[in-house]
Design brief:
Blueprint: E1 2-9, H1 14-17, H2 21-24, H3 35-48, E2 53-58, H4 62-75, E3 80-81, H5 103-109, H6 128-145, E4 149-154, H7 156-167, E5 181-187, E6 190-198
Helix pairs in contact: 3-4, 6-7
Length: 212
């Protein structure tokens, strides 16, 4: 038996391009994709179009849903919201549990969302170690519950956590740049990393990896 878990980070976010966006935003900790972030997300979707992916899971933050929705359209699949893949709930980055759009509002904007799916949870605040553990346990749970090839779309920290949780230890170095792609493959119960933060599908990549 073999299984492939694809792990992707969202595209560029508006507050990376325009830091002042944060000052007037309604949901300050839930930025949307920037214009070039949409381009990156479309290129990621094009890269994945021919892959045998059966399920797509995304963090409920807007930028990850936007990124994952392009892949869902390319693969003609529903999209499942999974809090276990969410951003690192770091109290140094955010003063409270970040407010995201409701499931109802997201479903209205993105009809491919499967509102019947009930995923895991994440609790604010959390340490970096707790975030990696939460994301790693989520990846292992999803791989076991959905034994087909799956795609997980998250954030820098959850890309690290999911890849390390499946295929390595804390010493494993994972490239988690914007709209990167990690490919983790299981053969006979053993997981290995086949692609580590690949960005060859992108025409524009970041030179300095930013997490917040």
């Amino acid at each position: 038996m073999s299984q492939t878990v694809w792990i992707a980070r969202h595209g560029n976010r508006i507050d990376f391009v325009n830091p002042d966006w944060f000052l007037t935003a309604e949901n300050r900790y839930d930025p949307h994709l920037s214009e070039d972030g949409h381009v990156q997300a479309k290129q990621l979707a094009k890269r994945l179009k021919g892959e045998a992916i059966s399920h797509i899971f995304a963090s409920p933050f807007l930028r990850t849903v936007q990124t994952a929705n392009y892949a869902a359209e390319a693969l003609d699949l529903p999209l499942k919201l999974e809090w276990g893949l969410c951003e690192w709930l770091n109290p140094e980055w955010m003063t409270e549990m970040p407010e995201t759009l409701s499931v109802e509002a997201l479903c209205q904007r993105f009809p491919r969302i499967d509102a019947s799916y009930k995923g895991g949870i994440a609790n604010y605040p959390e340490t970096g170690e707790a975030c990696l553990k939460r994301a790693g346990e989520t990846a292992k749970r999803l791989a076991a519950e959905f034994p087909e090839d799956i795609l997980l779309v998250g954030h820098g920290a959850s890309v690290l956590g999911t890849a390390i949780g499946l295929a390595g230890g804390v010493e494993t170095e994972i490239n988690a740049s914007l709209c990167c792609l990690v490919k983790v493959v299981q053969n006979e119960g053993e997981w290995s990393i086949a692609l580590n933060g690949d960005t060859s599908h992108l025409t524009d990549t970041e030179t300095l990896v930013r997490f917040n």
